[in-house]
Each structure stands twice: as structure tokens, then as C-alpha cells.
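Meet today's protein:

…
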Amino acid sequence: MQDRAEDLDRIALIEALNVMDPALGTALDPITELVAFTFGVPIALVSIFDAVHQHIISRVGLALTRHERHSSICALALGGPDVVQVADLRLDPRFADNALVTGPEQLRFYAGAPLITKAGITLGTLCIMGREPRRLSAEEQLQLQTLSRVVIAQMELKMSLGRREQVSGLPNRQQFQADLNALSRGGEARAFTAVLLDVFDLQSANDAGQALGMKPVETLLRQAALRVQDVLRDIAQVYHVGVTRFAFLLPEQSHDQTEALLDRLRVRMRRPLMAGSIPMSPQFHAGVCDFRAVPEQTADLIRKCLVAMHHALQTDACLCWYSQERDDALRRRYRLASDAGRGLAQHQFSLVYQPRFNLIDGLPVSAEALLRWTHPMLGPVSPGEFIPVLERTALMPAISRWVIDHALAQAAQWQQSVPGFSLSLNLSPRDFDDQCVWSVLSERLDAHGLPPGLVEIEITEGQWLNHHPAALPQLRAMAAAGVRIAIDDFGSGYSNFGYLSEVPISHIKIDQTLVTGLARSRTARLKVEAIIKLSRQLGYRTVAEGVENEAELSLLRLWGCDEAQGYHLARPMHPDAVLQLVSACRAGPLPDAG
């Protein structure tokens, strides 16, 4: 069992430290040549052993690169810290029949020193071989041991390159994952807690770098690293795994113990640090995840810590524990983003339409095109779930083009039976990135023979217009051609009438969060009445979204709201149902839709 554990440690270290890299052998060759010259032997080898093979990574005088461990002479030196030698291999029954002794090499003498890391793991051997019987003196054995330490030092130096963060000098993310892999092969499956810590807002660090240069910022990060190390001294190894992020492992700690430690670390970290002559306040957001040291859990640990840490960042919490439920939701969103392109090609998307009514005569005047997705595995997916996902992908403009084409085709069909009935389309901020959404819309209007005046474009309120300089010229071109522009969800966020003068809008759609429950909330009534009054004075028509009962509808009429939509009036429906509703309303009194 002891030998098996040592083999596991050795194999893990070989994998973690990448000792099979040919560049390592190149770095060791001068030492191997020095060894052969010092002892006057024709053969000198540096070997690494796994459970099955001897891997010769540096050599003088022997072309062999790999050998079976069970028949390797060098395996003799793995058993302890001392030099092992065989004065005459031909006379030793263990090696008398070995191919290196009986074959063309005709080896007689062997001496080997183990290569032992600082952690006490024997990776392999430094050995010398000759074709004449020989025995090393005590002084020569000491020389071979000294040279073996030079070899292992060179190996550890070479292996550490690329595994340390230059700014802080701490082990980096690659080393963190390598150590996790090694830990998981220990065979004990011990319980640990992993912590991923973000100590600075990356944008602030970038701004400081632009203003001050990178040296003060690097000094800042070194100070932060020293603080983390100081608190965790004798507790945990600290890793620098991102520009402003550190990680460490805590063995067998309760949640209370972990949170108490992180609270001490938070107090220390939140003290100002100097970037040049400017004091900066570090932040403290930690993602924490319990795990067991087994490959199935360590392989995915960094990702899970990221899930927890980003939750802390988004909620401005000091720490968040990993949540499987949140992880599942993130993976679902990622799946939706991955599957959307295939869904568009396979006709999984469809449109329904929600009618909008004039509050003076009660007639439906337009319908809003609403996108629906029936996923083959997940079933119907709510637009509230998939639209925000798609808006963060490059696929959103393609989805919007599909909506534009299909919705305009439907509007053109309606004109044959209910002329003048208009269509409302939603566009995302991403749709304005390619600077050709108006060209697409204009071309499809012409293709379907639809007058621009029968189309309304809805855009969300907010500051996104400031970050999309191509949006305003395109919106102005649309409005100049006769397309109506509406601000959607007004009152849910930015809600600033000042920026409306920049946008050629004609309608303001009051967000349903203000309208739903209007009759029961005095605050909502004051807000909605004020929006309607000011909009009328500024020359905008108002549309109330989310009307769910007659009391809300009565108040909206009383205040002079122009139009409304909501479940009380009509739910989203198939285009044929829209046609029947509009035809029926134009032929007679509005039926009770409540």
C-alpha cells in the first residue's frame, strides 16, 4: 500500500509539473554531460519513473528513451535517499540476464542517486554506467548525490516556469489546477473548501493603469497579495489565479469557520492601498465551494468557484457559497445560447401577436409581434428567459431579421382584410451594432408592399443609446420614412424625459410593473398619471402595458391615456385570431375580453 501511494504521488507530480517536456531534457543535458565527464563513464542518464515505465529524459552514451520499469537497473535507486551501486552487474543475479548486460552495451558497473523533490517525492534517478567493474568511494558517492540535487533543482526551476504569476510571485491558475489534480490522486477523498477571491474592480485597475502606468498597479496587486498571504500564513497556500483574483484551499473546515476566516481577511483587505500617490479601496468578493479531493470534483472546481464569486459580485455580497440551483440556471442559459442558431434553422421559433386598443373608441389599432421558442428538449421557453440570453450573443440580429421578415409578411396579409391595422416590432440594442437594421427593415417593407406608416418600432428606454452611436441616425432615418418609434417599458429604469428629445419617438409605453395593481397603489397612480400628463404636454401618445382589470382601465381612461394592451383586453394570440378579433370589433361593439 505504501509503494502504491508513492507511485500515485509520483505520477501526479509528473503530470502536474510536465517533466516530460522535451525542453526539460535540453536544459538537463549539460549537467548529464558533466556527470559523465566527472566520473569518466561512457553512460550517464537522468530518468523519471511512472508505475510502468522508466522515461530517460537526458542521456549520454545510450540511445534508449524508455524502458520497462520491472527490468530497469535504475529502478534499484528508487528505494531510499542513498546512492545505490552494483560493482559488477554480470555477477549480480538480479541483472546478470539483463539485455544491457548481455547485449551489445556489455554494461558491468552501475551507480545511481535518487532525484527527490522538496516535497520528499522520488521522481527518478541520476545514474552512471560503465563497461568495467567498479566501486565508488565515499567521496564519489557524495559527488553523485550533490549532482543529483543540482539535477532536481534544475528540474524544479524549469518546471516552475509558466506556473508563477510574475507580478506577485505566487503560483498561478495552472499550478492551482495541477495541485488540485495531484490532491485528487491521493486516494483519501478528504473534504476541502475552495475560495476564489476578487480584490479589485478590474475596470478601476484598468483605469488606474491608463492614468498611472502599470508599475503602480502592479505594486497595488503585490500589496494585495501580501495581505492575503499574511492572513493565511500557516493556514493555506495562496494562488494568484487572475489579474485581481486569488484562490486557496481550506482542509476540513465548517461553514462557520470558513466565514469567520473570510471575515478577518475582508477586514484586512478593505483597508486602502496606495496606487502611486492615490489611495484606492480594495473590494472583497469571495466565491466559496465545498468539495472532496476526487478527480470528478477537482476537475470542475474552478468553474464552480467562479459561479459563486460572480454571484457575490452581482449582488455586492462579501461572499457567496456555490449553489447547484444557480449553476443549473447558468448552464441552462448557456444551452439556450448554444441552441438558438439551430433552433432558428429548424423552425423552432414562432410569432404570436398581442392586440393594442384605442381607449377612446375601444377598437384594436395594432398588434405587437412577440417571439416564442419551443425547444425540442426543454419545451416552451419563456421570452423573459431566452431574450436576455440572446441579446448577449451575436445571433440576436439574425433573430431580429427573422422576426422582421415574418411579422411584416403577416402584416401585409392583414391589410387585405383589415386595412390600416398596424404592427409593432421590438428591436434590441444589439440590432443596431451592425448599422444596417434600417436597411433590412426598409428592404423588407418594400418586398412586402407595406407602407412604413403601418409599422412601429419599440426600443427599450435606458442609457444604451449612449453606447450605440449608430442607433440614433438609423432611428431618425426610420422616423423620416414614416415608421413610428416607441419607447418600451418606460418607468422601469432610466425614466428620463430629457433624453427623449434626442430620439424621434411618437409613443411612450408605460411599463406593466407600474400599471399592474395600479388601482391598489397610490404611488403607482401618482407616477402613471404624471407620465401620461407630461407625455401629452410633450406631444407623445401613451400606451399602458399589462392592463389586467377594469379598474385599471377606467383610471387610464380618466387620465387621458391613449392606448392600452394587457390580458384584460386580449392575450397574445395566433395571427388568424387577431384577424377575427379586429374584424369583429370593426363590425360591432367590442366584446367582453376580460
